[in-house]
Amino acid sequence: VQLVESGGGLVQPGGSLRLSCAASGLTFSIYDMSWYRQAPGKERELVAAMSSAGGSTNYVDSVKGRFTISRDNAKNTVYLQMNSLKPEDTAVYHCRARFKWLDYWGQGTQVTVSS
Q: What's the alpha-carbon Rg for the chain, to the nearest Å?
């Protein structure tokens, strides 16, 4: 199983980025998918999550109204659209796939928000 994130980078405050997480080696459509982030010196936190069928989403309060999680089961990919980025969004962003006891993580992609 592989989860490969992409789309991170350096962006100015107020800018946007779209992260992608491409999954392989699993039946993507049955997995609940989520994005986590970890900033230097801080614990990893859940940013956004989406159920396997896409009917349920939840977000950490600090990103509500700015970030949107979505998935394309035909492409085995989950996305995180990030708008109105703030310096405090700077972190390594990881995707996670879970189904019952099966739990997989990607290596992460760096997002830096700075002027």
A: 13
Q: How far apart are the first and last CA of the chain?
A: 37
Token pair 């069928």 in the structure block, residue = 53
- pLDDT of 55 strictly over 90: no
The contacts of residue 99 (CB under 8 Å, 6+ apart) are 26, 30, 31, 32, 52
Q: What is the pLDDT of residues 4-28, one digit of tens each?
A: 999 999 999 999 999 999 999 999 9
Q: What is the mean pLDDT of the chain?
A: 97
Q: Is the pLDDT of residue 54 over 80?
A: no
Mean pLDDT value across residues 47-69 = 95
- 55-89 burial, b at 16+ Cβ within 10 Å, e below that, comes to eeeebeeebeeebbbebebeebbbbbebeebeeeb
18 secondary structure, DSSP code: E
In degrees and rounded to multiples of 5, residue 45 shows phi and psi of -130, 150
In 3-state terms, what secondary structure has residue 70?
strand
